[in-house]
Amino acid sequence: MKSTILVDSSLPVQIWNTARQLDNVPVISTSTLIPAGARAVVIAPHPGDEVVTCGGLLQLLATLGHPLQLISITDGSASHPGSNLWSEKRLSVFRPQESVEALRRLGLPMHSLKWIRGGFTDNGLAERELQLTHFIARYLRPGDVVFTTWSEDGIIDHDTVGRATAKAALMVGASFNEVPVWAWHWPARDQGLIPWHRARKLRLDTWTVARKCHATHAYASQLDGEPEIGIAPKLPRAILTRMRQPYEIVFV
């Protein structure tokens, strides 16, 4: 049975709501993606990326009591340059609080969650890729199954973390998977650039999708931009709409 594609005619035509290949992506189960006994490691370039990329998977793992580690590379405090409302000082406090609330909404065991904060500066990761690679490798171990943003996602920090994580996983003998975020919002003409042969579909039920969307809305600082100074919402309506899809796509 083909997946339901939610199309909002008021949104631009993009890969996520037009690509025919999405219907034919092979389904993968959580147990196949992450073998019994393996630890799952989710690496987020910015706060919120862990929910947008793997919010459904994180819920499934928590329900199964699966070993899990989350690594947040930056604290996201540079997301609104020039803003008086969301200054870097305010965001350095506020965004970690948003992350805690988002993970709580997903149902993760906050009392026992292994959560590493990298403290790197967002929007500047490309210049520190080697350091980032060694930082990530320090927290991986052989047999881990690692998930992070696709190295060709089109956002510099996402791309950098994808490359650095791939190198780190290779160094320690961990399995490596990538999750596209912004690539789904490329124009439909670019769908041939997606590595469809690597794509796998993790199905999510209605409640899992609902909790994922609820968790995303914990990132209040990212939902509204400041048009008067040229800052668009970091979580625009197109992404929020796409997240209602009953699956997550992983590049294995």
Helical/strand content category: alpha/beta
The count of domains is 1
Largest sheet: 5 strands, parallel
Second rung of CATH, namely the architecture: 3-Layer(aba) Sandwich
Name the CATH superfamily classification: LmbE-like
Order of helices and strands: HEHEHEHEHEEHHE
Beginning-to-end CA distance, first to last residue: 23 Å
CATH topology call: Rossmann fold
Q: What global shape is seen?
A: globular
Give an overview in words:
The chain has one domain: LmbE-like (Rossmann fold, 3-Layer(aba) Sandwich), CATH 3.40.50.10320. The strands form 2 sheets. Strands 3-2-1-4-5 form a 5-stranded parallel β-sheet, sandwiched between helices. Strands 6-7 form a two-stranded antiparallel ribbon. Strand 2 (68-74), helix 3 and strand 3 (114-120) form a beta-alpha-beta unit. By secondary structure, it is of the alpha/beta class. The model is unreliable at 1-9 (pLDDT under 50). The protein is globular and about 50 Å long. It contains 7 helices and 7 strands. It starts with 29 loop residues before the first helix and ends with a strand.
